[in-house]
Amino acid sequence: MSEAIAVRLPNTMKLAIASMIIAIVIGILAGLISALKHNTWLDVGSTTIALAGISIPNFWLGAVLILVFAVNLQWLPVSGLDAPWYTIDGMKELVLPAITLGTGSAAMIARMTRSSMLEVVRADYVRTARAKGVKESSVIWIHTLKNAMIPVLTVIGVNFGALLGGTIITEKVFAINGVGRLMIDAIAARDFPMVQGSVLLVATLFVLVNLIVDIVYTYVDPRIKYQ
After folding, report:
1. For 54-79, what is the HEC assignment?
2. Where does the ABC transmembrane type-1 domain lie (predicted)?
3. Does the model's pTM come out above 0.85?
4. pLDDT in tens, 163-190
5. Sequence-distant (≥ 6) Cβ neighbours of residue 172 within 8 angstroms
């Protein structure tokens, strides 16, 4: 059992990490733009796209991406994670499943970043920094975004833990030999020890991810060290 899980765990970790990177980059940028352009067409468009990202199911999005980019355009491979991730072929194999899995998380991160930024941008210390003549880029990246990251980090940690356990559908759609697909096969074969072992592994990883997020809090907001 442990050998089977050890063989498939790297594929699940690669998929989850790649999905989380896409979710963080897209989510924070979209939420930042939406907050800075509050009540404009950019804000409305970003909010609408985020709502669509949360609403679209992974199995449908994955099938559409395969049909468009793998079957019709033939830009990317249909399935599998056989090549090493640091090669061109390995990166191509990761693109479609990572986008499929990371879309929902990106939408959640974008919404949280927007709401948190809107609260911080109206704070007195931000107004004071602008009155002192601090560059707008410094106001946004140092004074505003850094102080708005605590709730965003919470969402990132919860979503990354959920991605580790939520790769089942994506791995099935893209025929990836990961822990999620192993759980499906074990359930079909009534291999209950394998199911229990896989669930225990996912739960342990979820706890570790949240522990790491709690540690990161102290670096983002030094005040937490004294509480």
Report:
1. HHCCHHHHHHHHHHHHHHHCCCCCCC
2. 9-217
3. no
4. 776 677 788 788 788 787 788 888 888 8
5. 180, 181, 184
Buried b (16+ CB within 10 A) or exposed e, 199-218: eebbeebbeebeeebeeebe
The pLDDT tens digits of the residues spanning 80-117 come to: 677 666 777 778 888 888 888 888 888 888 888 888 88
Phi, psi of 40 (to 5 degrees): -110, 180
Q: Which are the contacts of 201, defined by CB distance < 8 A and separation ≥ 6?
A: 5, 9, 179
Both tokens of 183, joined, read: 């759980």
Please report the domains of the chain, with CATH numbers, ordered by start residue.
2-226 (1.10.3720.10)
**Nearest-5° Cα angle at 221, 219 to 223:** 115
Locate 207 and state its tokens: 């706890």
